[in-house]
Amino acid sequence: MDTREAVAFRIRQLCAARKITPNGLANLSAVPQATIKSILNDESKNPGVVTLKMICDGFGITLEEFFDSDLFRGETEAKQA
Q1: Between the chain's N and C termini, which has fewer beta carbons within 10 Å?
Q2: Which residues contact 80 (CB under 8 A, 6 or more apart)?
C-alpha cells in the first residue's frame, strides 16, 4: 500500500469509527465533497497538508493522531530499508 492509499484507508477507518459518511466529513471539515471524494477514490495524487489538517480538524484529532497508525510506520520502515 502506498502513502496515497494509506491516507484514503485511514480516512475511511476514522469515518467508520465515528459513524460519519465522507459527505458528513466534508461538512465537518469544510473540505469540499469533491476533494474528499478524489482522495478516497485515488484521484488526488498528492493531498496537501492543509487539506489533511482540515480533515483532521473535522475528525477532532491532530495530524499526529492521524498518522499514528501502522499504515504509515510501515511506509517509513520500508523506505528506510
Answers
A1: C
A2: none
